[in-house]
Design goal:
By secondary structure, the chain is of the alpha+beta class. Among the domains are: about 230-345, no CATH class; about 660-795. About 20% of the residues lie in helices and about 45% in strands. An eight-stranded antiparallel β-sheet has the order 26-27-28-30-34-33-32-31, with no helix packed on it. The chain has a five-stranded mixed β-sheet with strand order 22-23-24-25-29, with no helix packed on it. The protein has a five-stranded mixed β-sheet with strand order 35-36-37-38-42, with no helix packed on it. A hairpin with a 4-residue loop joins strand 57 (about 630-635) and strand 58. Helix 6 (about 725-740) packs antiparallel against helix 7 (about 745-755) and helix 6 (about 725-740) crosses helix 9. The longest helix has about 40 residues, at about 770-809. The radius of gyration is 37 Å and the shape is flat.
Amino acid sequence: MDLKTTYIPQETEPIYVGGTSASISTSDGKYLVTPLNEDVIITDLPTNEIFHTIKGDDEDENITSLCITPDGSNLAICSQSQQLRIFNLESKTVTKTFKLSSPVYISSCDSTSTLFAFGGSDGVVTVWDIEGGFVTHSLKGHGTTICSITIYGELNNLKSWKIASGDTMGTVKIWDLQKRKCQTTLNDHNTAVRGVGFNEDGSLFLSGGRDQIVIIYNTKNFKSLYTYSIGEQIEASGFVKFLNDREFFYTGGSANILKLWDLKTGSLIAKSPTPLKTNEELLIIDIIKLFNQNLYLVISDQTLVEIDCQSQQQQEEEEIIKITEVDEYDEVINLPIIKRIAGNQGIIADSRYVGPNNNYLAMATNSPSLRIINLQKPFELKICEGHTDILNAIDVTPDGLWVATASKDGEAKLWKWDDTYKTFNLHSTYQGHSGSVTAIAINKVLGNDEQPKFIITGSNDLTIKKWNIPKSNGVVKTSVYTRRAHDKDINSIDISPNDEMFATASYDKLGKIWQVDTGETIGILKGHKRGLWDINFYKFDKFIVTGSGDKTIKVWSLKDFSCIKTLEGHTNSIQRVKFFNSAVPQLISCGADGLIKIWDFKNENNLKTLDYHNNRIWSLSLKDNEGNEFITCDSDGKIVQWKDNTDQENKQKQMEQKYKIEQEQELSNNIKNNQWSKAFLLALTLNHSMRLYNVLQSCISLNQDPLSKIGSFELENTLSKLTNEQLLLLFKKIRDWNINFKFFEISQILISVILSKFPISKLIEIPGLIKIIDSILPYNERHYNRIDDIIENTYILDYTVEQMNQLLA
């Protein structure tokens, strides 16, 4: 049989859920620390592997602040319950716990990985000595929640150690750690101060607030040198070295753009790429500066973006500045993005294998951007911007080089693979639907130019459209034809392998088969009791399958459009169902019950149920038509990659069967040759109750050693050497035999031998043994009572015989 039944899962779960900012070990950028509700995830960024997970003690114990030391040795975890935990990464243990005076939402560590500073919601700044494991300072003066904090200090200069803290009322305080008091109070902001920082030599200090103002101070007297209006709400700011090792200041906030500014003129020098304006309102909630001056942007959708501040392009700009030595900049420099880290993909509505070797995954999520991940490094993300509202569906050509997307913005787009940058570039846009585009399919047969010919789209305006794909980039506003297709939303479209037909599935409970060239209906699939979520052609025969909200799968004949199979087994709506396997038709289905089911189509059998998701599975994507590998994605953002393991599983079963037959043959030989010890151990290992019983019964019957209770001193010696696991298994057999009066004698003999070979103190230490003995005792009492009754009856018989003898005399 060529049925595929066994799959090995490899999962990628979200690593970042919650509004708390992430933290990175800034000396090498190796460790990323993120909150996952009440848990903490430590990720090794170079390898894209989870280094460690720190479990929370309580489901309501949400993380409020995280801070890892620059050298990546220790981590401070603050929670809503005011608990502080210090976690050591080398030993992977919590080394200290401490009760803070209030919840902490902002924290920082100095550059030498010596001190943590925590800003409390009660306005108290707490300083923690990492090596000593105790509080060194408790600084009071803020009257409200502290929302920004930083530490500055030089390693061998105690006088230089300072902390700056800003609160939600706009007050900034500079604390002298040596004198343990507030050095300066600044009241130049009128709303929350979200960014405070010292430059590298400590001569300058800046503060940035949600009032859109950045103020730069001289630290000798903390007089303001410059005040700049940034034009956006600031959530993070600081100093960075850029262009010929000069100092600039950076800001990030509500515009979701990192900006670098000249200190003296306030001119905008450089910025990160401007995101496409969409319905998704994103902002930068924090900026983390690495020791190499690169900046990580922490975005509100739980993604992190590393910005390159040292690229070759900037080196060329440095040379220009060296030559001209001017402070005026003709053009704003675009800062390149090195990589994106996706902490949470959100709800994954659809996905497809893409790329030249199908080693990438394209996803339609609750984001306007098409998301692309490398399956070898699943946390690293590339985005393709073009849509202005969330994506509903995607489809891909068989070669994986063209992707079509359908969006809530009413447009469909076609993307082409760019092998240089390992991503997709926009090829063409299709405008014409009056509502959200809910389903899309791209033709399967590619021409000589390896470009697809057409796409089919479905919309909640209840129409379907066929679009011809232009040779060059552009916007297509006229479709080949438009047809009123269904009475309710169209949820899925699939095109037949030869491009002659396409199928639509709708929430109006109907599936329809259409002719591609004319757009005419040639078949209606009627029979489901609720709306259809998915429809799929079988690539190797004239079948088509539908999945419905009525919890059933129906397979239909394309010859007469009749239902030939109905498969039941899911406990909730079936979101996706696909045909696979050219040798023997099979189905994979998944749904709102979080289950994946593998079906044998011909025998209507559910071969396997895979339970690896905790929530509704929206997406199912096959890597090939044979089902050797597939991916499922759910509404929690969890991605599970499944690889076929049927051949290995069958080989393993064959090896186990072969080994079992060999052992059974060896057991028969041992019994035949009266090798009781070997036979006993082998029967016990094979877990054969009756074989084991027969070995013991035969040994007792043969009675090689009349003085032995079981007929063999060698077997008694073997019993005395049994391990705890073997003793536990043997007592389970004794319990089972002891229930039946036909077998109880041998169980009682075995109990007698074991009690004579093992001290009671050893037996009671075996986990689970006492419980088994407790179940043996009631039957022992019953057996002894029965024996007593038999003995008592023999006395009556003796008396009767004696009386009869006297009468005869």
